[in-house]
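Model the whole thing, not chain by chain.
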Amino acid sequence: MTTFGGATGRFPPLATAGSPMQSGARTPLRDLRFRANPDYELVLFERLSPSEQELFRGLSTDPDGYGILRPREGSGLTVKSVSRDLALLLYTMREPGTFPRYALEGLGRQGDSAIAGMVLDGILEIESDGRMLSGAQALPCLSPPGDQIPQGRQGAIASLSLSALQYGQALDIAEPGLLSARLYDYNRIPASARWRSRFPDPSAVAELLDLENAAFGPFRSDGHWAAWQAAASGHGSSSPTFKLYVSPAIEQLRETLHAATAVAAVPRVFGMKVGCDLYGILRPDKIVLYLKTFSDLQETAARFLRRMSGCPGHGVPFSADLDGGTLLSWGVDPPRDAHSVPWLQNESWRIRVTNRLACALVLAKSSAADSDGVRIEPWRFAMERVRLEGVDTRTWTPSATGLYGHN
Amino acid sequence: MPGFQYKDLMITVGSFPRPCLCFAWSFQITYKPGLHAAEALDMFVANIPAAAAGTVNPVQCMYATNNNPLLCTLHTPYQPLNTPVVMSPIHNLYAMGAGPSIGPPPESLATLKAQLRQALDNIERQEAAGAESMQPQTEAEVDELQTKLREAMTELERRKEELRRKPGK
């Protein structure tokens, strides 16, 4: 049996939530002129067709919800739900003008970032040299080149994530959901004939995992995941969930799995799952541990690395770097959003990130070049878009505060 | 959603309100106890009657390759054209953020069983109806089929005679 060890367990901190667009903008955004994007139609929920209302049924339960923004076909824009305050703002801004004072006061310190986000998402247009711009075309107005993503050495997972994003850009896919799935699936190992012959059925995978001898259990299988959950975790769906991804090479899966259960201190780790069929062990996030806090996650990771440092990793794209390698990484699932549409109510960290990236890629790929014939690389635009939300795209680390609605 | 909030719903006008062509949303009824979120079960139960009406042709979903469970978060369970919806059991563990969930309440299971029975009855009726439609419907059709059968029998007799005459047989 191979043994691993020697890690010190020092991890990077959470990213600092900020407003990346603020510092480098040539002119304060509040002094520029904006307009609601005429490619969007604002539709009150009750005025949607019956089939549309059925489709968006979850939104109608939101006490602050207004309806949806329905894009013009071929615009590359996606359907968005909007709050009442935003609906009023968009009605106010049908003609170009500076941002209303009441809205600036409402946005507070995050004003510039919020405005920039609305422009990059195509909800608002910004006036530049007599033209109204949004999406990727507007990026230079909001974030001059020198203020964009710093170049430099990247960790292995960041490098993998960048490759995934550039792969997504190369795909001829204009449907954000499908593109998000392709980003999410990046770095899975194909279920080739070799793997199929090695693991012809679930019992072969079960033999590899040897879950009966794990430090705790039992693990219940649904055929794809074998999962364990603490009897009383006390962890509600309204709280964020920290996830430690353990991503070993398949050859090290059994000992990695057993090490993970050995170091997982219950109740800090209140849930765990491992892929238990061929596809499950070929995906990079083969093992996932669920924790309540970031400090719990750090401590568990440190204990794990003391035993398994040096173990070859696989690498989970769009997860946050922990030690510069590919064996361990993490994410934080947002709280459940009961007022959203069903397919977005339970987004995981990686799904939310790939969803955002996919929407940005689709929008940027549909954008025309600017007046100088310059076209921003869609992958770069997508990274800027998630960076604006507080994700440090050098490490894919979420911010400690304010990201995706939880502190 | 306080303040100036919005959320991307991950669909374009081109895909909305066109129905989803996802197999898992349409006819995958291999329910396994203890793995569905109650919400998923509700959707399952609510839509089984429509499925039983036979309004859906299951189509392999482009997302379903490699057992990708993403389809559960990327596709609407509410089909605009009243397409029935069934959640696959693989969805639940993936969709939840906080680890495995417990199974659905027993009363939901009872309802589920009743709905499944109704669905199977309807499918059997459709199969029976399909078998009847394969039968000849007029006397002329019967005559034509009989003629073909006689010709086939004659051809077989001829072939049999040929084989008998072959040396060594």
